């Protein structure tokens, strides 16, 4: 992690001055750009950041009410909640299907985007939690918590049976010299490394602090991990409704937060970050709350969380100034509250850098956007085609070969490391970790299956408005470019598409041809990409890197 | 950059000149021109941090100490599959490694004890008192994964030790356009070179565009698509997204053509994730002549080793999967008459604490024991130094049996790279910390 971290942080610092200069120039020309939307393309770009992708109707809605009102509307919507399974035998596939149904149709789009981003910080996996009753309360917790307070989220996740099971803190027991066992360090370590702090001290723009030798400064030590592990011992499953509490542990129950079982809690004194002392004799809850409150106050939390959310929603390579502005809001929402995710999300989406002009010159343009991860790409296409995706659909089976089996991240680092980098290009690029020679071809073939209508039952597209454009190929291409690439398909690419489209006069054939090529353009794959005014157009036939 | 431009200029000047010119870049060329010359390194990465202590455990009098420290996690002495070291000490493999256990007696399976990432040798006292440089962020999965794959503790270089090795051998594969390094387990920095780009492919083929409409239609569509992604947008991320697709199509074409004409493998592989990966590696090796390959580096992986709780059953299952897949792969190399030319070795980010954690599991530690299989492996022995197991003892970095490695990744990898043909002087370019170790290579292959 720190590898990628350090790699991309060095890019950040290298980019910092260039970006800031360019941004000042760019943003000076767009007064109050945060709210004003003058073109459909700008609205589509915004919808790629705030939703699972633009639907045709939403583009005009953003244009009429503006971004701020749209965000506030989204922040006020009630959260998507997955229904409880009827029995404990239900597996996850019905809920994977629901994920795609909700993603296409439920109105709380922004909340779903943020909840999915949070699910890649607060990771649990169907590889362990392989029954719906284990997973569903946790999905609902993240959906509810997406617009709550980060500290509250840390508490709720720490007491959630799903996380307790996934990272082994349920029934974690204080050190037992007689049996020769120590407190389990799994959740303690990942709480520090993956949920709150990372491994190295950060500046408020998420670059690493360097000591006098130029080296990063560790935030915590092995001893901190051990003391944290001791502090969070003593939690067990809540009693199943109708059952009495059993000693020393209850049978597994996922329907309510874990409860304290004091005899298993370590009551010695603990030393956490920067010598912070927690006195001996505290209860399990006092120690857990004390530790979380203390760690939540650490200055790393703001930059650590903010840059992750920016990367998920807007861009893999935010300028240091952008990060700093969001961190300021994380640290204080304006009313003295720290960790207010509503304010943080609002700050991310309405920041001038998120709205920076579509045509950007030089390295600022190069740095914008992020690869649409498979889940996002699938949903974005469905929404662009105004598709109907029934509760019973098969999209997760089509998404999985692209590198993302929803609810089944392979490790505690989720599907990809949130600080993976394209080192040769000197760019942070988290989603590229799962973009391989193989998954790229699968992605192209997924588009082919959309075109061929081979996504199985439960999925249908509303192509009427596109079919109506078939007699005018360039209009058809422009419309698809708007919906799928927020209008950034270069003219040269449009011409390639046009030549292929006019090979048939059949309206459906034309739509299929245009859709296949536009949705497989790299501009469609990289969400939020801009148009480089300085880009060169090489002749076709350029080979890839491997066979160069 | 310098190397690449040199290679381009050499491409026109003939292979003999190229081979001698490349000697200065680190390859020994003695075997380079021999017909049938072939070598492959196959890394099996055990993601999550394998519990080396239950993979290879003491089976002599030291077992009593092991059993006391491990408590409920100890494997009974009689259940361990005996692997006596040549120095007289007896060890035993996990009982579920039965599929590969016979290779130890046959001299094809070796163990290297207590391997881990190190800047230079360090004592407990030096470590505890911060008296010497150590790898950054020890005990973190992601950091140690990167370090095992790259050999670097700062990661700005963006290359792995497999990729840097591939850089040195790629000219032996000329004029083949097939990538020297291939991952069956997604993008892995281990295979990224300065000059060479690996492919990450999926087991079981595919990697070509499909769809309705007939061959001519699909070819025209693919041509248009490639024309689009071949344009330079001037945007690095956009270019990388499209280029990955182009790479996939190019590599897929070569693989599909080569595998279509290769005779089917007779060796049966287990239908597990690792089994499918290694089957695909075997298929590619079977197609090596068709693909024009003389040196190949493969990366396969199996996850689930982060056994913080309920370790015994989970780990036993993983050991079975590992052994069954490694055995099938070894048998396949025999079938393909390349058993002498292929070495399979394990990596894993770290070992696990000797001292158990609440929940009948173990936590993150440092050094761990590793396995190597192949007819060229000097098997039948335990290489390196097995640590003193005492908790808080001279080899423990802490108090729970997180042992300071006694063999470094650099020594382990340099031994493999030497066998692969990298010259002694070039090893330092691949393993940046090798210079800090007096025994640069071990004698296990």
- Separate helix tally of chain B: 15
CATH topology of chain B: Alkaline Phosphatase, subunit A
How much strand content do the residues of chain B show? 5-15%
Task: Give me the secondary-structure category of chain B.
Answer: alpha/beta
Mean pLDDT of chain B: 91
Query: Looking at the structure, what is the overall shape of chain A?
Result: globular
Mean pLDDT of chain A: 90
**Unreliable runs of chain A, pLDDT <50, ≥5 residues?**
1-33, 536-548
Describe the protein in words:
The complex is a heterodimer of chains A (about 550) and B (about 450). The longest helix of chain A is centred in the N-terminal third of the chain and has 27 residues. Chain A has a domain of about 375 residues. Chain A has about 550 residues and is mainly alpha-helical. Chain B has about 450 residues and is of the alpha/beta class. Chain B has one domain: Alkaline Phosphatase, subunit A, CATH 3.40.720. Chain B is built from 15 helices and twelve strands. In chain B, the strands form two sheets. In chain B, strands 1, 5, 6, 7, 8, 9, 10, 11 and 12 form a nine-stranded mixed sheet that branches. A three-stranded antiparallel sheet of chain B has the order 2-4-3. In chain B, strand 3 and strand 4 form a beta hairpin. The chains are: A mainly alpha (about 550), B alpha/beta (about 450).
SSE map:
The complex is a heterodimer of chains A (548) and B (445).
Chain A lengths: L1 H27 L11 H11 L5 H10 L1 H10 L16 H13 L3 H11 L12 H14 L4 H9 L2 H6 L19 H11 L25 H10 L3 E2 L22 E2 L9 E2 L5 E2 L5 H13 L4 H13 L6 H12 L9 H10 L8 E2 L1 H6 L2 E2 L2 H11 L3 E2 L5 H5 L21 E2 L4 E2 L8 H15 L7 E2 L3 H4 L5 H13 L5 H11 L5 H13 L2 H4 E2 L3 E2 L16
Parallel strand pairs in A: 5-12
Antiparallel strand pairs in A: 1-2, 3-4, 6-11, 7-10, 8-9
Chain B lengths: L1 H10 L3 H9 L15 E8 L5 H4 E3 L3 H9 L10 E4 L5 E4 L8 H4 L3 E8 L7 H5 L12 H10 L10 H9 L11 E3 L15 E2 L13 H16 L6 H26 L11 H14 L1 H4 L3 E8 L8 H25 L6 E6 L20 E6 L8 E2 L23 E2 H12 L3 H7 L15
Parallel strand pairs in B: 1-8, 1-9, 5-11, 5-12, 6-7, 6-8
Antiparallel strand pairs in B: 2-4, 3-4, 5-10, 9-10
Helix pairs in contact in B: 11-13
